[in-house]
Amino acid sequence: WAKAEGRGRWAVYDPERSAREIARSSLAAKLPTALDRGEFVLRYQPIVSLLEGRMLAVEALVRWQHPELGLLGPDRFIGLAEETGLIVRLGEWVLRRACRDAEQWRRGFPDARLVVSVNLAARQTDDPTIVETVADALASSGLPAELLQLELTESAVMGTAGEPLRALHRLAALGVRLAIDDFGTGYSNLAYLRRLPIHCLKLAGPFVEGIRGDDADAVADRRDERIVDALVRLAHALELWVTAEAVETGVQAERLRALRCDTGQGRLFGAPMPADRIAARLAGAEAA
Ligand code: C2E
Ligand code: MG
Ligand code: MG
Ligand code: MG
């Protein structure tokens, strides 16, 4: 049966699809050497206090400086890296680089207490060596644990057995902050919030996008606003911080502040940028 089904799937020739498949597999083939050649770079996006406008943290976002194709976003290769398992090595590179950059900022601007937030894929949190890897990234960079935040997806938190991962308790015990990324878009139940030492919820972009403040689609708007309102209340009841993702307009920032959301991230506060531009911002804030 499987064979017949498999054949059936490939029987229909779709030139666009096969072009995509070829592009994908050639990217996949080049991923491991790209890491060895140092073709990955990090951008950092400010996470800003909605009350005072101060930059409290930055999220590390990986890019691939591809020799022919130019700067590729993670949507082009993170999925591939997850499928091939390379994400474990790539993720470790991101973590170490981000810790080193954050330690540079801390040395230059100790009063800023800027937190660096690093995405962890499910494959990484499943890896038994993750706790030692994080501990070593902190030790070898010199970055204090409380200036590192790890962003986990809901599915990563739940692991494969439906139990929140033990490793997360050990990670929290190192003193790092744990955040749930894209909160509200996963498939897991909320029981993990009772048991896990989470510090922050990141509200997924689509909820924020729904806040437009104009009269068009007013009903749908209000529904997204009410969801954000409820999620912020939930987070605060559990003494968690809330970061709204994909904040693009002043109206959204205004509404999010009114809903007591703590921090925002998005084009309004700055696109992902190279590490030296974060340093320039810290210098600017100090001068002001
Ligand atoms: P994410 O962790 O939810 O990151 C936020 C995404 O929102 C980023 O996309 C960011 O560039 C984008 N964004 C920033 N401002 C705005 C805005 O105003 N509006 C909208 N609509 N989007 C905005 P990016 O950099 O393309 O990254 C996409 C995803 O790739 C990330 O989503 C994350 O899941 C993954 N990713 C990125 N870097 C890493 C990494 O080092 N490791 C792992 N495992 N995943 C990563
Ligand atoms: Mg993230
Ligand atoms: Mg996110
Ligand atoms: Mg994400």
UniProtKB/TrEMBL annotation:
* Domain of life per record: Bacteria
EAL domain boundaries: 24-286
Q: What is this protein called?
A: EAL domain-containing protein
Parent sequence residues shown: 434 to 721 of 721
